[in-house]
Amino acid sequence: MRRETRNDALWKFGSYIFLLTITALVLIPIYWMLVAATIPQSEFFSWPPRLLPGLHYLQNFQALQESVDFIRSIGNSLIIAVSYTALSLVLCSMAGFAFAKYEFRFKEPLFYAILATLVLPIQLLIIPLFLLITQIGWTNSYLAVILPWAANPLGIFLMRQNMKAIPDALLESARMDGATEFQLYYKIALPTMIPSLSALAIILFLNQWQAFLYPLIVLQEEKMFTIPIALAQLVGQQRVNFDQVMVATSLAIIPIFLMFIFLQQYFIKGILSGSVKQ
Amino acid sequence: MATIDITKLRKEFGDEGEQIVAVEDLDLTIEDGEFMVFVGPSGCGKTTTLRCVAGLEDVSSGSIEFDGVDVTDQRARERNVAMVFQNYALYPHMTVRKNIGFPLRLSTKQSSDEIDERVEEIATLLGIESLLDDKPKELSGGQQQRVALGRAIIRDPEVFLMDEPLSNLDAKLRSVMRTELQELQQELDVTTAYVTHDQVEAMAMGDRIAILNEGRLQQVGDANEVYRSPTNEFVAGFIGSPSINLVTAEVDGDTLVGPGNFEYVLDDVSWVDGRSRVRVGVRPEDMHLVEDGAGSMPSEVTVVEHMGNENFLYARMGEVDLTARVPSKMRPPEGSRVRFDFDEEDLYLFDVDTQESVKTKTGETDVGYEQYVHNSV
Ligand SMILES: Nc1ncnc2c1ncn2[C@@H]1O[C@H](COP(=O)(O)OP(=O)(O)O)[C@@H](O)[C@H]1O
Ligand SMILES: [Mg+2]
């Protein structure tokens, strides 16, 4: 017994050392970003490097706002990422529910076809998509960015896998209680899937938040720029405005950060427990 | 409330080629307000039958009528049927209050105040009013069971279906809930179809019992009928615990001769007219120990189980295992040789090939209680 406890303690100690190292490795660049956002560009390459933040944040931000309308970009990014995430959650959960809980013709081939699209590189789709978007006249619109990727194959896959865990008896019981098929989805499937929906929301939001190549092609007017495109404007041929880039990125990570903190309370394990007695 | 008419119900699973016939040509009427228990071994089609009545399963052929209205093609939610599932199937994300009120919120135009009032009424009836704000996972098995019941009765269904609702409870709670369920059913007077694999439960609860085997209905009748007058060997073997003892015997004039020197002389030979062999059945409770030299079943005791109020004797007669229930003071040592006998009125005979009943219990029932009945209100 004693020996085992001692081993456990050692193991725990080792794990903490390991985790702390990883955390430090992740945090150092973020810390440097924050420091660099608060000092003038001239001090950026000074040696030894600055370790403490300076007082130049607001000046840097003003410079950024003069180079490119960054506040507007944040707005654009928020509108696009939020509506994309919402729409995609609806579509993925509906498709996942159907694939997990209904029988229909060509179900298997259809599902594998959707999975197969995961291996298509985005570069392959960009040209045809661009042509399509131009033809229907959607260039420089939010819809052009949101719609083509809304039915996310990874999301459909994740929702299907998770929804398979909903006991059939639960759905049948709701049917007996008088629920329509849509009510099954809306009143039973969705609420029990909140943990997976939260996880998926973060993935989707993050994907859209940092999307660069495709938005760059369909959004050509500056007033439509998203954050990654705005950032790209700061990188000139001769000169990179590091101070402005760092201010911009320090702002860009805030929504992701908030979203994670807000949603993590829903990653509670075992929300399905206690539904059916095993 | 409704009368349920099931006509030629058939349900197959699987594709062409490798079909499983889960229910085969089932004809049955469940009377208005009746408590009908479906019983049979695992896989005999009880659940499938219930699910067809519920509308959760499409039938392959045949029809189901509620009060003369054909509901065969109606969906579950159009049928006004409530069901209690074996594992309760409570909605995990809703409180007990929400769980019980769920059917009403879906199916009626009642205001949420009215619904809440009704939920509390039901909860009081079931003794769970203090749990209304708990989530299902915080409840014990028996409490979950009550919530499931509450959810089923709240909208006054025409038909009440239950699939082994007590099988997840421990023995003690099971017998408590058994009585409660019966009382509830009588009070609500709802036509009920109840599935169990436990024949004791079936006998105890059912107004009538429907015994199924391999997808086919074997017999329908009240507890007394299926116990005393089983239609065939399967029913005789399934009903009663411990099971009936069965022996194949040759008919020699008025005597039945079987393995291990089994010999039984019939008073009434007409039972075996024209038969050379017959299956003989005797229930354990009808076997009694007799003195040496008498009796028809000479056997060797292998195991004695002391139940307190009685003893189970397991014995071998030639190649055949026998079980007998004897008074608790009779405990012959294991390995000893004993002789059993039984009365002819308690004898069952079955056809060797078809397994249909030839003779079942013939003794009188309802004898000699008049002197104990006091009609003083
Ligand atoms: N969904 C299904 N698909 C295929 N076979 C099934 C299905 N449901 C039941 N069966 C088969 O039908 C038969 C009867 O099953 P069931 O009604 O569940 O029996 P019981 O409830 O009496 O134990 C069994 O052989 C079972 O394997
Ligand atoms: Mg079953």
Description:
- The complex is a heterodimer of chains A (278) and B (377).
- By secondary structure, chain A is mainly α.
- Chain A has one domain (57-273): MetI-like (MetI-like fold, Orthogonal Bundle), CATH 1.10.3720.10.
- Helices cover 69% and strands 0% of the residues of chain A.
- Chain A has helices at 2-37, 57-67, 70-101, 107-116, 122-135, 142-146, 153-163, 168-176, 181-192, 194-209, 213-218, 227-233, 242-263.
- In chain A, α3 packs across α10 and α10 (194-209) packs antiparallel against α13.
- The longest helix of chain A is centred in the N-terminal third of the chain and has 36 residues, at 2-37.
- Mean pLDDT of chain A is 89; it is low at 270-274.
- In chain B, strands 6-7-8-3-9-10 form a six-stranded mixed beta sheet, sandwiched between helices.
- Chain B folds into two domains: 4-234, Rossmann fold (3-Layer(aba) Sandwich); 243-359, Nucleic acid-binding proteins (OB fold (Dihydrolipoamide Acetyltransferase, E2P), Beta Barrel).
- Chain B has eight helices and 21 strands.
- Chain B is α+β, with helices and mostly antiparallel strands.
- In chain B, a hairpin with a 2-residue loop joins β17 (310-317) and β18 (320-327).
- The two termini of chain B are 31 Å apart.
- The longest helix of chain B is centred in the middle third of the chain and has 18 residues, at 171-188.
- Chain A binds chain B through residues 167, 169-170, 172-180, 183, 188, 191-192, 194, 270-278, and chain B through 54, 56, 75-77, 81-83, 85-93, 102-103, 106-107, 135-139, 141, 144, 151, 155, 168.
- Magnesium ion (MG) binds at residues 46-47 of chain B.
- Adenosine-5'-diphosphate binds next to β2 and α1 of chain B.
- Chain A: Keywords: Cell membrane, Membrane, Transmembrane, Transmembrane helix, Transport.
- Chain A: It is a multi-pass membrane protein.
- Chain A: It is found in: Cell membrane.
- Chain A: Residues 74-263 form the ABC transmembrane type-1 domain.
- Chain A: It comes from Halogeometricum pallidum JCM 14848.
